[in-house]
């Protein structure tokens, strides 16, 4: 399985530099952004790009013809993405530090949490949908998401005091811990779904 | 004689196509040619063999093992050449070696570079710049570099020019010399098989019509020509398909001995090529269904 993770690095040699460049650009030109957003972008870039790369070719036929099981192929993607995420956030942290862009550990944690949630929803699409439809699906997903968000926001503002009251009543530890548990559970659930779909896939 | 691959009653239904109740044996140490018209089920059968598809019914054994419990062991010992490129187009062979080699326990770097040299393949050029023949050779080099005992090739000669095709057949003949390998390859260019195949498996409309040694095929099948007046209902049954014309008939039989006994020298017989067999067998289905 380690070989399957390593191959995503070999294939993305060029993209590695691109992702560093993106972080540097953000660090220089996007001073008004929340740092957690930069961490999110940095962490999601390589894993998502790995999927998009594989969508174009018949590469799944190759992996399945080599001595790997389908279970390993999916596991490598999920474990690999988590590893890339940790690395990318580390690298992004160093770059932001060099460019004097202030951030806290909390920003890193939020970035990582959002990575898990975003990955949990997008990764299975690459197994469920036929290649070529995924771009459309993510677009529709984004529209639905913003629609849902726009209907949630009024609800949130209406009940803001109650929610803030509830959140402040929790200790920050509980808050972060439950956030982490929810994000990671979603990721593991997503892994299970992808695994289930990929087992039945026809090439 | 051992079978390296065995299909027992394998059925697979796909959206607009199915293969039904396939029984297939591939003999160890020989070249088996897999023929059939486009859409007859060759690729589906090969995908089942590689576990890219899972059978709805029946058993598939490779090296006497099944995929459910020995997937990795089977694939360690298998090599594959597909009819289209399955590698990342932008990668060069050096990088492809870096991602493929670690997958195999038996990978032999020296062997790999020897074949690359022998096949005159560039190491630093992207696969997308390769011609069809070069892509095929690259796949073959990889298959040969991990000591694959069974090599499966899907239409390796399709789209190759005649010179290159000969070259490939020579290479295949050479790798078969030591008798350790088994080769299974599909093609609809039947003349390739007449040169190198020991066994022929013929698939038509999702069914295996026969698996026979090349000599058996040549002994049993023949084209028979004669006047219409020798044909009656019983004789007709000895033919797979009869083509009638105003001069007489031409028919394919798989019962040369029977025809000789009944008709003797009232008809003329000539050896049937694989192409004849494919052509007449196709007509037969249309005629009798």
TrEMBL record, chain A:
Pfam entry (one): ABC2_membrane_5
Q: What keywords appear on the UniProt entry?
A: Membrane, Transmembrane, Transmembrane helix
Q: Does the keyword Membrane apply?
A: yes
Q: Per the UniProt record, which residue ranges are transmembrane? A: 9-29, 35-52, 73-98, 110-129, 136-156, 176-198
**Keyword Nuclease assigned:** no
| Origin superkingdom | Bacteria
Q: Which InterPro entries match?
A: ABC2_memb-like
Among PANTHER family, the record links this protein to: MEMBRANE PROTEIN, MEMBRANE PROTEIN-RELATED
Q: What is this protein called?
A: Permease
Q: Which organism is it from?
A: Oceanobacillus neutriphilus
UniProtKB/TrEMBL annotation, chain B:
The residues forming a coiled coil are none
The organism's superkingdom is given as: Bacteria
The alphabetized UniProt keywords are: ATP-binding, Nucleotide-binding, Transport
Q: What Gene Ontology molecular function terms does this protein carry?
A: ATP binding
Per UniProt, residues of the ABC transporter domain are 5-230
Tagged with keyword ATP-binding: yes
Q: Which Pfam families match?
A: ABC_tran
What PANTHER family does the record tag this protein with? ABC TRANSPORTER ATP-BINDING COMPONENT (PTHR42939:SF3), ABC TRANSPORTER ATP-BINDING PROTEIN ALBC-RELATED (PTHR42939)
This protein is called ABC transporter ATP-binding protein
Source organism per UniProt? Oceanobacillus neutriphilus
Q: Recite the lineage of the species.
A: Bacteria, Bacillati, Bacillota, Bacilli, Bacillales
């Amino acid at each position: 399985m380690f070989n399957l993770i390593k191959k995503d690095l070999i294939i993305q040699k060029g993209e590695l530099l691109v992702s560093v460049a993106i972080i540097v650009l953000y660090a220089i030109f996007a001073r008004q952004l929340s740092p957690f957003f930069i961490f999110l972008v940095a962490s999601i870039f390589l894993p998502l790009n790995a999927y998009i790369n594989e969508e174009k070719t018949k590469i799944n036929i190759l992996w399945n013809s080599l001595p790997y099981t389908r279970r390993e192929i999916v596991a490598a993607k999920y474990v690999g993405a988590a590893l890339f995420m940790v690395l990318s956030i580390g690298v992004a942290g160093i770059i932001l530090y060099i460019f004097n862009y202030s951030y806290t550990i909390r920003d890193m944690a939020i970035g990582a949490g959002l990575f898990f949630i975003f990955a949990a929803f997008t990764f299975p699409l690459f197994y469920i949908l036929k290649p070529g439809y995924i771009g459309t699906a993510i677009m529709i997903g984004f529209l639905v998401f913003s629609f849902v968000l726009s209907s949630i926001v009024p609800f949130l503002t209406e009940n803001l005091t109650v929610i803030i009251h509830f959140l402040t009543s929790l200790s920050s530890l509980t808050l972060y811990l439950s956030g982490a548990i929810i994000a990671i559970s979603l990721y593991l659930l997503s892994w299970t779904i992808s695994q289930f779909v990929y087992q039945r896939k026809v090439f | 004689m051992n079978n390296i691959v065995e299909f027992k009653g394998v059925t697979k239904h796909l959206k607009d196509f199915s293969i039904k109740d396939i029984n297939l044996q591939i003999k160890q140490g020989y070249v088996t040619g897999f023929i059939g018209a486009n859409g007859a089920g060759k690729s589906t059968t090969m995908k089942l063999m590689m576990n890219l598809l899972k059978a709805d019914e029946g058993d598939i054994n490779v090296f006497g093992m099944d995929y459910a419990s020995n997937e990795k062991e089977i694939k360690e010992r298998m090599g594959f050449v597909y009819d289209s490129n399955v590698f990342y187009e932008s990668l060069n062979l050096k990088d492809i070696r870096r991602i493929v080699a670690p997958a195999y326990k038996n990978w032999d770097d020296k062997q790999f570079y020897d074949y690359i040299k022998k096949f005159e393949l560039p190491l630093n050029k992207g696969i997308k710049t390769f011609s069809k023949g070069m892509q095929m050779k690259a796949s073959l080099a990889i298959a040969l570099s991990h000591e694959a005992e069974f090599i499966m090739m899907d239409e390796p000669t399709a789209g190759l020019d005649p010179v290159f095709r000969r070259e490939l057949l020579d290479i295949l003949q050479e790798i078969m010399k030591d008798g350790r390998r088994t080769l299974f390859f599909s093609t609809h260019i039947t003349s390739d098989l007449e040169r190198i195949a020991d066994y022929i498996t013929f698939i038509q409309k999702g069914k295996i019509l026969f698996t026979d040694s090349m000599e058996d095929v040549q002994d049993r099948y023949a084209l028979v020509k004669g006047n219409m007046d020798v044909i009656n209902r019983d004789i007709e049954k000895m033919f797979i398909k009869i083509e009638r014309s105003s001069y007489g008939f031409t028919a394919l039989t798989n019962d040369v001995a029977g025809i000789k006994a009944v008709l003797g020298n009232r008809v003329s017989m000539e050896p049937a090529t694989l192409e004849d067999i494919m052509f007449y067998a196709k007509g037969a289905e249309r005629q009798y269904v």
